[in-house]
């Protein structure tokens, strides 16, 4: 009788162990049933992420970046587009792609442990814009010290622009085409020509008398003033004045419009 109780206890113990074992197998089955399929897809050699659109994407400053996302494929079949998207600059995560300034971004797409990346370059491809400028007319005397950059203006979306004009201006009367260049901080360049017309100016020679030589031109009229411009006297292309002091203003008109003037001070 006593041996029978011992046998019952042993059988009861093994039954408990058996049920515990069955329970653990059952719970593992339930857990694996939930995770088995995606886990296998993650580890599957056929799983990959394909980026929608271009791998290398350029966006102009102040333009709009449109996120095209990525797709998940397994064995050539598309299974999802639900990827985690994050943005980085130099391995530092940022909130989004800011197109207000030039920068290089990495867009990272993640699906479990599968990762793909897109490069987005925010760049400035817009060239500076010159303001309109007209032909400049100067005399040969003015050409000696004339700044060819005078009156040249340009704007750029960056807010910064450098202007430089080649100094090929001479003092011999004629037409001079000056190349002007506007450059922004990102290397975008605009080139425009400025036309400068050099004409003969009014010449003075003084040796007890003052000799005025006016330039020759079609429809030119010549005048001079001895009273600081209060009154003018018409004269010839070459005029000799007997003056010993003060100042003389000489002017040239074309069809009654002032073309040039020059002043000589007698010491």
What does it look like?
Residues 28-44 have low confidence and may be disordered. Strands 2-8-7-5-6 form a five-stranded mixed beta sheet, with no helix packed on it. The protein has a four-stranded mixed beta sheet with strand order 10-14-13-12. A four-stranded antiparallel beta sheet has the order 18-17-20-21, with no helix packed on it. The protein is rod-shaped, with a radius of gyration of 44 Å. It is 17% helix and 46% strand. It has three domains: 47-123, Sandwich (Immunoglobulin-like), CATH 2.60.40; 129-199, Immunoglobulins (Immunoglobulin-like, Sandwich); 203-266, Immunoglobulin-like, CATH 2.60.40.10. A hairpin with a 2-residue loop joins strand 3 and strand 4. It starts with a helix and ends with a strand. The chain has helices at residues 2-43, 140-143, and strands at 47-51, 56-60, 70-74, 77-80, 84-89, 92-94, 103-111, 114-123, 129-130, 136-139, 154-155, 162-165, 174-183, 189-199, 203-207, 209-213, 220-225, 233-235, 238-241, 246-254, 257-266. It has 267 residues and is α+β, with helices and mostly antiparallel strands.
List the topology elements.
Elements: H1 2-43, E1 47-51, E2 56-60, E3 70-74, E4 77-80, E5 84-89, E6 92-94, E7 103-111, E8 114-123, E9 129-130, E10 136-139, H2 140-143, E11 154-155, E12 162-165, E13 174-183, E14 189-199, E15 203-207, E16 209-213, E17 220-225, E18 233-235, E19 238-241, E20 246-254, E21 257-266
């Amino acid at each position: 009788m006593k041996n029978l109780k011992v046998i019952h206890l042993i059988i009861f113990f093994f039954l408990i162990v058996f049920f515990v074992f069955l329970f653990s197998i059952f719970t593992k089955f339930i857990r694996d049933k939930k995770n088995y399929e995606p886990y296998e897809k993650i580890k599957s050699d056929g799983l990959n992420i394909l980026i929608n659109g271009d791998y290398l994407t350029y966006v102009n400053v102040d333009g709009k970046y449109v996120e095209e996302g990525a797709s998940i494929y397994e064995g050539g079949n598309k299974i999802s587009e639900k990827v985690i998207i994050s943005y980085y600059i130099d391995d530092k995560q940022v909130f989004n792609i800011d197109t207000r300034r030039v920068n290089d971004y990495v867009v990272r797409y993640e699906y479990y442990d599968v990762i793909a990346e897109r490069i987005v370059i925010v760049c400035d491809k817009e060239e500076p814009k010159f303001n309109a400028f007209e032909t400049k007319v100067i005399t040969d005397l003015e050409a000696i010290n004339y700044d060819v950059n005078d009156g040249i203006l340009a704007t750029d979306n960056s807010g910064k622009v450098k202007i430089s004009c080649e100094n090929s201006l001479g003092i011999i009367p004629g037409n001079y085409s000056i190349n002007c260049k506007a450059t922004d901080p990102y290397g975008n360049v605009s080139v425009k020509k400025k036309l400068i017309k050099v004409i003969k100016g009014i010449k003075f020679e003084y040796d007890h008398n003052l000799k005025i030589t006016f330039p020759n031109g079609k429809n030119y009229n010549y005048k001079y003033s001895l009273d600081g411009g209060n009154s003018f006297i018409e004269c010839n292309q070459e005029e000799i004045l007997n003056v010993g002091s003060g100042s003389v203003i000489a002017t040239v008109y074309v069809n009654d419009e002032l073309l040039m003037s020059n002043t000589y001070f007698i010491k």
